Amino acid sequence: MAKTLSAYACTECGWQTSKWVGRCGECQQWGTVEERARAGASLARTTVAAVVGRAARPITELSGDAVAHRPTGIGELDRVLGGGVVPGAAILFSGEPGVGKSTLLLDAAARAAAAGARVLYASGEESTGQIRMRAERTGALHETLYLASETDLATVLGHIEQVDPALVVVDSVQTLASDQIDGGTGGPAQVREVAAALIRVAKERGTPVILVGHVTKDGSVAGPRLLEHLVDVVCHFEGDRQTSLRFLRTLKNRYGPTDEVGCFEMGDGGIREVPDPSGLFLSRSESPVSGTCATVALEGRRALPVEVQALVAKSSTPNPRRVTSGVDPSRVAMILAVIERRLKVTLHDQDVYVSTVGGVKLTEPAADLAIALAVISASMDRPLPLRLAAFGEISLAGEVRPVAGGAQRSGEASRLGYTRLLGSSSATLEQARIDAGLAR
């Protein structure tokens, strides 16, 4: 006999329970458990194979030309996407409010329209008049760029059928809702249904769809985790509101690399790309200053020279401060311990501040040596040579380990005029200090 099943499942991780609970027992998230009723489901019923309408073909008989990357006209955006937009791809853009997501995508939509394609820009956050005003300011006006201000999913799908665009931009996925699904706008069930419907349209029509997603207070994409699994590409747009520099990174990319970064600059006339950001993260000082050291970071296939600055001052509190900006705090704490233990430099009663220039974030271990030399230079109040750059990973034993891309880092540093390079050639941190001219 058929038995009606009523189960509750977590929208984040899929954990199931027979009764409703406020907190998921697997991922420990609050308010994510929802009812999933299957009326008339039978425990003995099995899935029957359906008639195949389109037979499977050998992979060698399929051509990849129809799904090749199509450039957007923005070089930095193409770099991050792996060469351009793939037909039928679903791309998710996330970022803090006001960072420039809508401005960048409106520019990309206008460039696609200028190339002869029909583009639909659907916004649930702004009216068409507001979008038109921003387009006038950034020079993004074109006849084949269609605007729609809608919050209903069915209406947006109707616009897609009517316009028949070659590119669709939806800003944002949390503002659309379907009347076929219970729950408020922006809820997990609504976001899941809206994203699934738009992705289904993208795959069926071969039209790339770009979705803008909100972020939570910790910087992750708002909504169910399933949203990131459904789309093909996840890009995160980041930047400090106090500076004009913006970075676009890929968190997931089925059609290209995930370690590329695009550099942009926000100005009064909109957002523009920065193809060569080599000098953005270096100070303008022409004389050596204590507590500064240059390094070369690798972002994908791009080498970025970055200056690390450190300040060491006598602490007036029992617990000295350790303040960082742009670098990993735990990594800095480890480097300070190695310096004090291996080089006998007293830091336990000193306040230490470490920062990068230009707001760039250093996450790779290759910056360890530059951080260590900057701290030692600040503690001794002795500047490093002006044309010196350092990169290398520091172990707990005080060794300087080689890092990937050494030749590329050295080439970029030499191109910018750095004549002294410290890296794996200095086997230990003590030897690196001597080579840098910071010997006692």
Q: How would you explain this protein's 3D organization?
A:
InterPro entries: AAA+_ATPase, DNA_repair_RadA, P-loop_NTPase, RecA_ATP-bd, Ribosomal_Su5_D2-typ_SF, Ribsml_uS5_D2-typ_fold_subgr, Rubredoxin_2. Belongs to the RecA family. RadA subfamily. Plays a role in repairing double-strand DNA breaks, probably involving stabilizing or processing branched DNA or blocked replication forks. The chain has 440 residues and is α/β, with parallel strands linked by helices. It folds into 3 domains: 34 residues; 202 residues, 3-Layer(aba) Sandwich (Rossmann fold); 144 residues, Ribosomal Protein S5, domain 2 (2-Layer Sandwich). The protein contains 10 helices and 20 strands. The strands form 5 sheets. Strands 6-5-7-8-4-9-10-11-12 form a 9-stranded mixed beta sheet, with helices on both faces. A 4-stranded mixed beta sheet has the order 13-14-16-15. Helix 7 crosses helix 8. The longest helix is centred in the middle third of the chain and has 18 residues. It is globular and about 80 Å long. About 2% of the residues have low confidence.
